[in-house]
């Protein structure tokens, strides 16, 4: 009885011990406790964590390489996340941490990648650049999750619907008629353009013919020029060109002499013109004085009293002459001794 009781107590104690060991092992396995110091820790600095929680996986190049060990508030406006990485895991060059949803069911993960591998999103890259420090702390940022993308997509869908409504309002029956009229006008314009191209093609053919004729004439002129050059060479060899040049020089000298004479003549004419101007001015002065009433000649020409007196004198002289002719003895007394 005593032996069986002891055996039962031993079995119960052993069972309790095994169960306790199993429970502790299960808890340690669930929490992924690092009993042997097989993990290395990495600190991440970010503005927010999104949906990241303790125990979420850490992924490097698609391979699970650790888990999130702690999340705590850091400096004002910042959050510090501690990542536990497996021993032997090497970080990529210039590493950064992207916090993003791993599935549609709300599971999140921390992905360690290179700065060059960050998606070309302006806000995301700005957040990474802002979170960088000079210490070993990695820069982190939260990528938009499915909910945010869905919200943005819903907003875009609403905007598209508004645009579609506006287009439907703008594109009414009148707009449709105007569009059909524009299409007909475009068809008419195409026809006119085709006719114009046909006519212009004929004109281009004519222009091509004219150009060909012009080229032929230019070729003939070139032949004539070549002939002229040959004649010039021949004339040069016979001395005719030298004679022509000498004659041209003689003509140039004579023309220069004639030009000099003409210049002298022009100078003399200028002097004569000046003298003539002086004579005309003086004559004009005389005429002005004669036409005036201040001088003797002016009084004689312009004073009516002088004219009347002169006319009276002439009449008296005529009467005197007539009286002398009639009665000469009255005026002439001739005595002969």
TrEMBL record:
Residues 173-228 form the T-SNARE coiled-coil homology domain. InterPro entries: Mce/MlaD, MlaD_Phospholipid_Transporter, T_SNARE_dom. Pfam families: MlaD (PF02470). The chain crosses the membrane at residues 12-30. Keywords: Membrane, Transmembrane, Transmembrane helix. This is MCE family protein. It comes from Gemmatimonas aurantiaca.
């Amino acid at each position: 009885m005593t032996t069986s009781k002891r055996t039962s107590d031993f079995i119960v104690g052993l069972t309790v011990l095994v169960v306790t060991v199993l429970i502790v092992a299960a808890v340690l396995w669930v929490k992924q406790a690092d009993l042997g110091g097989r993990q290395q820790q990495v600190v991440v600095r970010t503005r927010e964590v999104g949906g990241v929680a303790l125990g979420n996986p850490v992924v490097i190049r698609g391979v699970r390489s650790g888990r999130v060990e702690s999340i705590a508030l850091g400096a004002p406006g910042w959050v510090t996340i501690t990542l536990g990485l497996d021993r032997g895991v090497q970080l990529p060059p210039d590493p950064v941490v992207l916090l993003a949803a791993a599935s549609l069911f709300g599971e999140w993960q921390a992905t360690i990648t290179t700065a060059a591998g960050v998606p070309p999103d302006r806000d995301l890259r700005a957040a990474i650049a802002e979170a960088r420090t000079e210490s070993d702390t990695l820069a982190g940022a939260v990528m938009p999750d499915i909910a945010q993308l869905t919200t943005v997509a819903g907003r875009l869908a609403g905007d598209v619907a508004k645009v579609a409504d506006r287009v439907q309002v703008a594109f009414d029956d009148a707009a449709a008629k105007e569009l059909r009229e524009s299409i007909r006008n475009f068809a008419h314009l195409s026809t006119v353009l085709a006719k114009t191209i046909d006519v212009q093609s004929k004109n281009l053919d004519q222009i091509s013919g004219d150009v060909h004729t012009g080229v032929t004439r230019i070729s003939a002129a070139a032949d004539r020029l070549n002939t002229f050059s040959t004649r010039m060479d021949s004339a040069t060899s016979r001395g005719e060109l030298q004679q022509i040049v000498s004659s041209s020089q003689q003509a140039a000298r004579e023309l220069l002499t004639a030009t000099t004479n003409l210049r002298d003549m022009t100078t003399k004419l200028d002097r004569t013109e000046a003298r003539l101007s002086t004579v005309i001015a003086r004559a004009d002065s005389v005429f002005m004085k004669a036409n005036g009433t201040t001088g003797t000649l002016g009084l004689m020409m312009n004073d009516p009293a002088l004219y009347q007196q002169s006319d009276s004198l002439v009449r008296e002289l005529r009467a005197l002459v007539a009286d002398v002719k009639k009665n000469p003895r009255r005026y002439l007394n001739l005595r002969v001794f």
